[in-house]
Each structure stands twice: as C-alpha cells, then as structure tokens.
Amino acid sequence: MSISAKRRVDYSALVDYIQEENIRKTNHLLEEMIPKLVEYLQVTVAATEESAKECVQQAFLNVYERILGGKLNDPKSLLSYMMMTARNEYFNQYRKNGRLISDEFVTSSISEPAEQIDRLVEQERKELLFECIGELDDESQMFILYFINHPDCTTKEASDYFSLSEANVRTKKYRITHQLHSLFKMKEAVKDI
C-alpha cells in the first residue's frame, strides 16, 4: 500500500474555537474532520455512508457538550477521541437497531420457530464477527473490510487497490482470515461457557 506523507492538522484548536464561539474557524476544521471520521467508520466497521454520517454527527454532539462543559482532558488527542466516540456510537446504534429488529421479528413474524432461532443465531454471529474485526490492528481491519464490502473482488483488483502483489494479497488475506477465525472460535467458546 502506498502511503504518502500528508500535512497533519492540529484539531486541538477546534476546542478553543468552540469555547470562543468562533463559528467560521470551527466550521472550517469540521469540514476537514467530519469526512475523515465518516471514512474511518466506513473502513473500520463497514458502516454505510448514511449510518457513518449519523454516528459521526451524534459523536460530535457528545464531544461538543463535553468541550462546552470543560470536560475534555486532552485537546491534543481530539481526533482520536472523536474516532473512538464515533466508533462507539456506531456499535451502540448497531446493537440498538439489532435488538429492535429482533424484538419486532419475534413479535410479528409468522415463520417457524426454527427459522426464528436461525436468524437470531446469525445476527449474534455477525455481531461477534464485527467484535473480532474490531480487535485487529487498523491495517488488518481495513484490508479484511475491503473484502467484506467487495465480496466479488478478484485478487487482481485487490492487488491494484492495495498496491501489493497478488501473492502478497492472498497471503495477507489468509493470515488475517486465520487470525479472525481463531478470535471468533475463542470468543464463541467463552460465550458458550
């Protein structure tokens, strides 16, 4: 993967701009930060653009309240804090929506009980998979989520996308998949205890 050096933006100034009520400068930094956070959620947790935008907006509102209340301890780590808050918001929404779907499914479905159980088990397995993906390093998350988001992708296409040889793509995919499989089995065994 080719990595180019980009100018790092100091988002800690955003805390000052918000506290000073400098709307123009606040909006300028937010215009840079928000698309990065949306993309971060799309890559790390396979969020849709719409759900990523919703989660980032809610995360920013939460952080905004903390900034106004003087509760943000380290303005230098604002971007990391926003990333963590957006990610947590995504998982909260995912769990919340999953429960709503399951509750609605159980009360209104006319399908067989065995089908209901299969669907609930599938939902639990999907949540467990995303939990396991969340434990991978960022590069591995981005790599495996690319394949999840592009299931028909060929090795050649992935090779071009990640600027790796086809052999390296296959090897990396195998290693990450194996690591995910081990994590999944371990978590599944712990859950069953």
TrEMBL record:
Q: Name one GO biological process term.
A: DNA-templated transcription initiation
For this chain, one GO molecular function annotation is: sigma factor activity
Q: Indicate yes or no for the key word DNA-binding.
A: no
Alphabetical list of InterPro entries matching this protein? RNA_pol_sigma-70-like, RNA_pol_sigma-70_dom, RNA_pol_sigma_r2, RNA_pol_sigma_r3/r4-like
Q: Which residues form a coiled coil?
A: none
UniProt keyword annotation of Lipid biosynthesis present: no
What domain of life does the UniProt record list for this protein's source?
A: Bacteria
Keyword annotations from UniProtKB, A to Z: Sigma factor, Transcription, Transcription regulation
* Family of this protein: Belongs to the sigma-70 factor family. ECF subfamily.
Q: State the name under which the record lists this protein.
A: Sigma-70 family RNA polymerase sigma factor
Gene source species: Rhodohalobacter barkolensis
